[in-house]
């Protein structure tokens, strides 16, 4: 929770805050995220406006996860920018006078509670949106062998002589045709045992 009492309700009042906080649980997606309890560095700018407090900020945090191609662990640094308006509790009364009729927007509004605001939902949205959807250990990561699961970056010459099982029937047909060509090859005079 962050306190906005110093701003008062004077439009144009400004306060800057730099703070470190422990990352909440489940701050990320399945393959990458901020570890629970990791230090999140926050640089915030709180600005008092007519309707409430406009919070603009940047969050920096370490990321851990795994490469989606080769499953190797990876570590990154994340920087996420965000901006959110926290309305005064009585701003709801003022907005009813100038009703826009947009109920969905009304539900998404965040309010100050006793001059305090909770940054976690805003931080969570900003971090998740800034995460790579398919993190890779390097841009040209070749991934894993589809047959045996070997990491291809460790062995660039890795290959298997065995044919793909989906092509086995065609390979068998090709071998049959080759054998049939040998049987149907033209024979020279004297090769036929029935001629003798």
Topology (elements, then pairings):
Elements: E1 2-3, E2 14-22, E3 27-28, E4 32-34, E5 39-48, E6 52-66, E7 73-87, H1 91-97, H2 103-107, E8 110-111, E9 116-117, H3 120-130, H4 168-183
Parallel strand pairs: 7-8
Antiparallel strand pairs: 1-9, 2-5, 3-4, 4-6, 5-6, 6-7
Backbone CA Rg: 33 Å
Largest sheet: 7 strands, mixed
- Overall outline: elongated
> What is the ordering of alpha helices and beta strands?
EEEEEEEHHEEHH
Task: Write down how many β-strands occur, each being a DSSP E stretch of 2 or more residues.
Answer: 9
- Structural class comes to alpha+beta
- Gap between N and C termini, in Å? 105 Å
- Nearest-integer average pLDDT: 82
Low-pLDDT sequence parts: none
Number of helices: 4
Helix content: 10-25%
Strand content bin = 25-35%
Walkthrough of the structure:
- The chain has about 200 residues and is of the alpha+beta class.
- Helix content is about 20%, strand content about 30%.
- The chain has 4 helices and 9 strands, in the order βββββββααββαα.
- Strands 2, 3, 4, 5, 6, 7 and 8 form a 7-stranded mixed sheet that branches. Strands 1-9 form a two-stranded antiparallel sheet.
- A hairpin with a 3-residue loop joins β5 and β6 (about 50-65).
- The radius of gyration is 33 Å and the shape is elongated.
- About 15% of the residues are buried.
- This is DUF177 domain-containing protein.
- Pfam families: YceD.
- It comes from Streptomyces mordarskii.
- InterPro entries: YceD.
